[in-house]
């Protein structure tokens, strides 16, 4: 390929542009009215306007994106993640336009995008799935019967999507009818498909995913696992690899299952097989959850631990190259952690925030990496995801990586919008998180519901966390006019307050 159009924005667009430049490939950015001077637009070799700020009219506008590719002379498209990255119709449209789609074939995206079809594919490959029932009919009576056959507690899930939409927990028989109706209605609204299926609810599971990479010549390898259990509303907050306290035998079985699932559907390019893990130690059981047919937000932790650049790999595989390494060549070295830095207010249920980045200084140093798509002076609006950056650290051990992450977070200076850095510091300081991989870790367990259970504690970070953040910001504004800032719970302070939404 000679010129790649990135059908995305923000930090992932910047990340793909960097990899393309390193491989001598020209890049084309697309942008909406809201992103005319965004970092990804300035970083690319060429830039094409595709519509107004609303994503539906720009970053999801397939005809406009294909027209931009044709006009710019692009011969390939990288979808990034989100937006159109798992849209089979878009992948097919790219292929029909003679463009290389840097991802799996449309048929694979379609198959694995259906939760019921993906479940069937996993079962055919001998991969364990959560006990459940796919109703033969989508009538309310048939779905209700499936719930009762699975038993309580049960989970009703949308067949066509994820992210928690079209999902309802049912713990009693008198909840069934309302849960079936609301799950189907929400699934239809979110995915234009109201079909649902039923699984046994796994209480307090861990969420472990395995990175896979396949080529067009039938080779598939895994690049080990990531622990994504620290999440809220099914959205990940902190990810790490290797997964803490994961028994070697379980790791080996899970990674082998991921390769089998990918191989069974003829998977090509980078993808992720997601599992939920029930129990602890050698007796833990894992079940197939879904497959993400794209690059993941958290791919940098895998890159740092395995030494494999996944975007470079995507480009090479899309160009038709066979994998240039074997499974035996992939090893884990050290420990990596990623924190997602968002413009959001922890004191108000992590509500997204808007404003202008009056001061934005990223941390740096050995073992510290920041993938971002914003710059100082840029407005953070309501049109797109409020993630400002991904902060990733790597060290020899988990303890060293945790310490390095805490120091990097304290050095992250953001003025102008409220952000979740104090929340992240408080989360890292929870005993369940800190002790998870220690020899004395018994009883210190993390699961996907931890943040929800401890949200009140996390929304009010300890004094030392607030002090450290305030000192970092205070150094930046020392000797300058410090505007008034709106602090937590309506408290007004100066700009050295770590809750730094500026109120001019």
Notes on the protein architecture:
The chain is α+β, with helices and mostly antiparallel strands. Among the domains are: 3-102, Rossmann fold (3-Layer(aba) Sandwich), CATH 3.40.50; 131-200, 2-Layer Sandwich (Dna Ligase, domain 1), CATH 3.30.1490; 206-344 and 363-374 and 383-398 and 435-449, ATP-grasp fold, B domain (D-amino Acid Aminotransferase, Chain A, domain 1, 2-Layer Sandwich), CATH 3.30.470. The protein has 17 helices and 26 strands. It has an eight-stranded antiparallel β-sheet with strand order 14-13-10-11-12-15-22-20, sandwiched between helices. Strands 3-2-1-4-5 form a five-stranded parallel β-sheet. It has a four-stranded antiparallel β-sheet with strand order 6-9-7-8, with helices on one face. A hairpin with a 5-residue loop joins strand 10 (206-214) and strand 11 (220-232).
Keywords:
alpha+beta, Rossmann fold, D-amino Acid Aminotransferase, Chain A, domain 1, 8-stranded antiparallel sheet, 5-stranded parallel sheet, 26 strands, globular, disordered C terminus
């Amino acid at each position: 390929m000679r010129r790649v159009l990135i059908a995305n924005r923000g930090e992932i667009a910047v990340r793909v542009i960097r990899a393309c430049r390193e491989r001598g490939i020209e890049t084309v950015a697309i942008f909406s009215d809201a992103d005319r001077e965004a970092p990804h637009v300035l970083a690319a070799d060429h830039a094409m306007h595709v519509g107004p700020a609303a994503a539906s009219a720009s970053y999801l506008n397939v005809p406009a994106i294909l027209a931009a590719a044709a006009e710019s002379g692009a011969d390939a498209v990288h979808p990034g993640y989100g937006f159109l990255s798992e849209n089979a119709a878009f992948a097919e449209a790219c292929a029909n336009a003679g463009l290389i789609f840097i991802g799996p074939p449309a048929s694979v995206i379609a198959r694995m995008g259906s939760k019921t079809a993906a479940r069937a594919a996993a079962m055919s490959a001998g991969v364990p799935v959560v006990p459940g029932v796919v109703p033969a009919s989508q009538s309310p009576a048939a779905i209700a019967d499936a719930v009762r056959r699975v038993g309580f507690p049960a989970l009703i899930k949308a067949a066509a999507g994820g992210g928690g939409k079209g999902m309802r927990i049912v713990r009693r028989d008198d909840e069934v009818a309302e849960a079936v109706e609301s799950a189907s209605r929400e699934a239809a609204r979110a995915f234009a498909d109201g079909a649902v299926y039923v699984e046994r609810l796994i209480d307090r599971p861990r969420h472990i995913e395995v990175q896979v990479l396949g080529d067009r010549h039938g080779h598939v390898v895994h690049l080990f696992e990531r622990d994504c259990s620290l999440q809220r509303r099914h959205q990940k907050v902190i990810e790490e690899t290797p997964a803490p306290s994961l028994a070697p035998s379980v790791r080996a079985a899970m990674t082998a299952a991921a390769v089998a699932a990918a191989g069974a559907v003829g998977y090509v390019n980078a993808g992720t097989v997601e599992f939920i893990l029930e129990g602890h130690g050698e007796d833990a059981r894992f079940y197939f959850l879904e497959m993400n047919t794209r690059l993941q937000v958290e791919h940098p932790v895998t890159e740092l631990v395995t030494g494999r650049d996944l975007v470079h790999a995507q480009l090479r595989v899309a160009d038709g190259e066979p994998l240039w390494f074997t499974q035996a060549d992939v090893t884990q070295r050290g420990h990596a952690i990623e924190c997602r830095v968002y413009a959001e207010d922890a004191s108000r249920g992590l509500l997204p925030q808007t404003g202008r980045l009056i001061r934005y200084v990223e941390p740096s140093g050995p073992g510290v990496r920041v993938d971002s798509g914003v710059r100082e002076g840029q407005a953070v609006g309501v049109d797109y995801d409020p993630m400002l950056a991904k902060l990733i650290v790597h060290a020899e051990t988990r303890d060293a990586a945790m310490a390095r992450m805490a120091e990097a977070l304290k050095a992250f200076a953001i003025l102008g919008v409220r952000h979740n850095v104090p929340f992240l510091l408080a989360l890292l300081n929870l005993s369940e998180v800190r002790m998870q991989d220690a020899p004395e870790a018994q009883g210190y367990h993390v699961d996907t519901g931890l943040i929800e259970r401890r949200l009140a504690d996390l929304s009010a970070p300890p004094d030392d966390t607030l002090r450290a953040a305030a000192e970092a910001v205070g150094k930046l504004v020392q000797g300058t006019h410090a505007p008034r800032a709106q602090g937590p719970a309506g408290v007004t302070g100066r700009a050295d307050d770590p809750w730094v939404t500026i109120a001019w």
